[in-house]
Amino acid sequence: MSKIAFIGLGNMGLPMARNLITAGHSVTGFDLVAEVVEALVAAGGTAAESAEATLDGADIAITMLPAGPQVASVYGASIIGKAAPGTLLIDCSTIDVATARKVAGDAEAAGYEMIDAPVSGGTGGAEAGTLTFMVGGPDAAVAKARPYLDVMGGNIVHAGGAGNGQAVKICNNMILGINMIGVCEGFNMGEKLGVDPQTIFDVVSTSSGSSWAVNNYCPVPGPVPTSPANRDYQAGFTAAMMTKDLHLAQDAAESCDASTIMGRRAAELFDQFIESGNGESDFSGIMKMIKGV
Ligand code: NAD
Fold first, then answer.
1. Domains and CATH numbers, the chain
2. pTM of the full predicted structure?
């Protein structure tokens, strides 16, 4: 069993770390928020006073942080050059491709093996250990990481070299953001035409309009009891995070001259949603804006 440093114990990181503990690993965690570190301890983990302190004796360091600036700063100040030689570095955050490649390059230059391994599957997937990991990095590092990723996920896809995990993740989330808005528009229009939302769900979830946003994360209360719509859109995956990813997608599209007309419109709509004070709402709460509430 391994000694794992886990930095970033938020909505995703905490349940991922808990699964590693359940699998028998020793996990030492750090987060800026004391309560989530206490929750890790309650699950059998160990608290550290700082990001750097998690690395003491660690075989592996896993990060699950909000965005590129936090990843660059935590790796730059607290991991690269501080972790023992041979420590395997795994960043599971969703960040921009350029930062992922820069941090991986710095880690490699300092003698570490590093992979980017962003995830899909939401907090439900994190709890259940069924996340999809999209992995970028050298074959040997991916092979070493796989047994740990297997504990936290059900589907591990090696997408290529450093940063390619982030590239696939950004494509996925742009599709999800666009799709969620479409799902909200369809359910809202159906209701206005006098159809019960459960009936819309029964048809769409088994028809050509089905998608993860409908079947697993339906944005109206009722049809999918675990979806945030049943708890007044408590996140889940925040609208702020989705907006971040849609802008990462726009930056990536510009860098490779890809046409993303719907992706751009989705970013604008999510900007509007969070500018009206909904950044901490679940992203499926954009239903309220579509409904005009
Ligand atoms: P979150 O905000 O709940 O968790 C991030 C945690 O990082 C917070 O607890 C925060 O205190 C901590 N943190 C920030 N800076 C830190 C630092 N310098 N040192 C230590 N801890 C620090 O976010 P989340 O929902 O867990 O998402 C994490 C990442 O996973 C994001 O990049 C997000 O885009 C991605 N993601 C989230 C979901 C989801 O459904 N929530 C799904 C897939 C991917």
1. 3-161 (3.40.50.720), 167-290 (1.10.1040.10)
2. 0.90
